[in-house]
Amino acid sequence: MAVRTLFTGLLTLTSMVAIVLALPSLWVKERLVDREGFVATVSTAARDQQVKDYLADQVASAAVEQTGRQAVGLIVAPVARAYTNTSQFEADFADIASQQHAWLFDPPPSSGDTSVMELDITGMLNRVIANAGLDLTVTGPILVPLNQAGSGLEAGRYYQVGRQITAMAYGSLVVAVIAGAMALVIARRRGTVVVWLGIGLICSAVFAWAIGVFFADRAKQEVVAVEDAGRTVAEVIVDGAVDDLHRLALIVAVAGVGVVVAGVVTRVVVGRR
């Protein structure tokens, strides 16, 4: 009986540790490493007014630079600001987010400058020019830097890390499920196991919250924009991603409390019998 209790405890502890690792790693895998998840996470920034103003200014500046005519900028500027309130802007912003993902998570290029993330806004500019009724087409590419050389961020920086986190996410989830199920099967007091698994969920939520705080600080240090407005945009994107993780952590924490309560109730009911 002592061996059975010891084995149950080891399995429960294993499942708890795996649960703690599974939540943040699964979130990173689904919301950052996967391209579609990254685009969905980052694209929420398209609704932020600071982001809209920054890109509208970039489009207007690019129009002047590409045509060499100040008058074009005066025409394009108000149209660009109106364009940022359309669904087309959100679609174009999603394309920019996809470019960011490719720069961060695809294998690093064998040549060229890999120290500066540049986003191509050629499509945005041509769309705004068309909306302004101007008979112009810009071939581009028109590149906007999102960080500066020497910030520590390089193309393909998270390629290997992304693969490792994906393996960790799937592995920890499988271990958590199998170990938890085995612990419940062999346990003499299943209610106690349920309580500890619920505590594991709460711990995973706390850990994920802390990871979000660390990620926000680290990402803001690495994504240093060339100018103040660009820095603000980068921070909006980072904060949006961290808010998404923190919302998930809160949901998991509440679920963990529910599991703990269920385990306690089970113990009480079984004990009375």
Key terms:
2 strands, two-stranded antiparallel ribbon, elongated, mainly alpha, single chain, 2% strand, 2 domains, 273 residues
Describe the structure.
With 273 residues, the chain is mainly alpha-helical. It folds into two domains: 2-34 and 158-265, no CATH class; 46-145, no CATH class. The chain is built from nine helices and two strands, in the order αααααβαβααα. The protein has helices spanning 2-33, 35-42, 49-67, 70-83, 87-105, 122-131, 159-186, 190-222, 228-272, and strands at 118-120, 143-145. A two-stranded antiparallel sheet has the order 1-2. It is elongated and about 85 Å long. The two termini are 21 Å apart. The mean pLDDT is 87.
Low-confidence spans: pLDDT under 50, at least 5 residues?
none
Instruction: Estimate percent helicity.
Output: over 70%
Rg, please?
A: 25 Å
Tell me the total number of β-strands: 2
With strands numbered from the N-terminus, the spatial order across the biggest sheet is 1-2
Structural class: mainly alpha
What would you call the quaternary organization?
single chain
Distance between the termini: 21 Å
Largest sheet: 2 strands, antiparallel
Shape: elongated
Structurally, the number of domains stands at: 2
Spell the H/E element sequence.
Answer: HHHHHEHEHHH
Average pLDDT taken over every residue: 87
**What is the helix tally?**
9
In short:
The chain crosses the membrane at residues 167-187, 194-216, 248-270. With 273 residues, the protein is mainly α.
Write the layout of secondary structure elements.
Layout: H1 2-33, H2 35-42, H3 49-67, H4 70-83, H5 87-105, E1 118-120, H6 122-131, E2 143-145, H7 159-186, H8 190-222, H9 228-272
Antiparallel strand pairs: 1-2
